[in-house]
Amino acid sequence: MAFGTSHIITVCRLDESPNKRLVLMRGLTSSKSAFKSLLLCTTLLGTPVSVINAQQAGDGNNYFLDSPDSSKFAVIMAGPTVGDENKAKFRQWAFSLHDILARDYGYDSDSITLLFDRGENDGPGAERIDGAVDRQGIERHLAALVAEAGTGDQISLFLIGHGSGEAEEAKFNIVGPDITGFEFAELLDQFEQQDVVIVNTTSASYGFSSSLSAEGRVVISSTRSPQEKYDPVFSRYFIEALDSRNGDRDKNNRVSMLEAFNYAKDNVEQFYEEQGRLAAEHAGLDDNGDSMFTLDPTIDEIDGRLAEIAYIDSLSIADENLSPRALQLKAEMQELERSVFILRGSKADYLEADYWRQMEELLVNLARTTGQYNEQISQ
């Protein structure tokens, strides 16, 4: 996929800073070359701290590498509900998510699986439905995905509907006997060589979500306890974050799971404030495998560093809009940016002088590569 906007990167050194902090300024311009926005690299860097070697920071993190030959798959599961209003809402969310992934993020019918209620094949858009959300359908489609997905591919699962219970009794409501978090976790254990993201937007989702926590996984839960059992609005805003890349806060024309989570969380809070109601849901994120969900994940917290480099979109090697050289440069840009994020997230482990030396090297290389990329796409 080609970038929707071109990137102008300027690297400068602030000599008045005691640490001579390097600042990256990224401007995004439209196709008409009108200046769209300017972002200081403090978004990337944060505050100066101590440092080690940037390469070492990446050596121990082989998750969500986004290599040019990797693929991404999405599984959307919208469970059954009572009442026409709720059913219409779940259908709208599931179908909207399906269409956004296809329109904005390069997914096709082969890389999206939509399991909806009982798998009804009538009504507008029914051709998008691949089956029912029942035990047999879930097991069959995940098994097919295991056979298709390669090493390093990314699997993103979106759960829409109702949940119930807590601990080992926490369940996702499906057609027929409900499935527990532990049973669902066993199905996900098949994806040993893939990166996995789970976005659980159901009511009472916390207990189910915590069962899915594992090293290298990003798990998002729309609620923080079994007591939050009313239908969450988190799903609405998470999908909105993906729509037209609304959640892209760092203006790199991509949406990470951390960005989408924070966009949805902030809008959920605003929703309840405008309603004059106490919030009935509090979303959390876990990406370090400890089953402890953070309500305000950042790269400075225990949770948030992996979600920051887990993107919903893919770098497709079959992108017809890019020349082979431009595709290579785009891959290098994304890998350099990923290294910046990893280095920044590990800043507490570094000696200060080494940190800024390594950060400067990364940012200069990012600026140089971006310039070369812009030259390629302007030809």
What does this 3D model show about the protein?
The model is unreliable at 1-60 (pLDDT under 50). The protein is an alpha/beta fold and 379 residues long. Helix 3 (84-104) runs parallel beside helix 7 (234-242). Strands 5-4-6-10-11-12 form a 6-stranded mixed sheet, with helices on both faces. It is globular and about 55 Å long. The protein folds into 2 domains: 6-63 and 316-377, no CATH class; 72-308, Rossmann fold (3-Layer(aba) Sandwich), CATH 3.40.50. It has helices at 42-45, 54-59, 84-104, 135-148, 181-188, 206-210, 234-242, 257-275, 305-308, 324-345, 352-377, and strands at 6-13, 22-29, 35-40, 72-78, 112-116, 154-160, 163-164, 171-172, 179-180, 195-200, 217-221, 284-286. It has 11 helices and 12 strands. The longest helix is centred in the last third of the chain and has 26 residues, at 352-377.
Short description:
The protein has helices at 42-45, 54-59, 84-104, 135-148, 181-188, 206-210, 234-242, 257-275, 305-308, 324-345, 352-377, and strands at residues 6-13, 22-29, 35-40, 72-78, 112-116, 154-160, 163-164, 171-172, 179-180, 195-200, 217-221, 284-286.
Features:
alpha/beta, 379 residues, 6-stranded mixed beta sheet, 11 helices, 3-stranded antiparallel beta sheet, Rossmann fold
Helix-strand blueprint:
Elements: E1 6-13, E2 22-29, E3 35-40, H1 42-45, H2 54-59, E4 72-78, H3 84-104, E5 112-116, H4 135-148, E6 154-160, E7 163-164, E8 171-172, E9 179-180, H5 181-188, E10 195-200, H6 206-210, E11 217-221, H7 234-242, H8 257-275, E12 284-286, H9 305-308, H10 324-345, H11 352-377
Parallel strand pairs: 4-5, 4-6, 6-10, 10-11
Antiparallel strand pairs: 1-2, 2-3, 7-8, 8-9, 11-12
Helix pairs in contact: 3-7, 7-8, 10-11
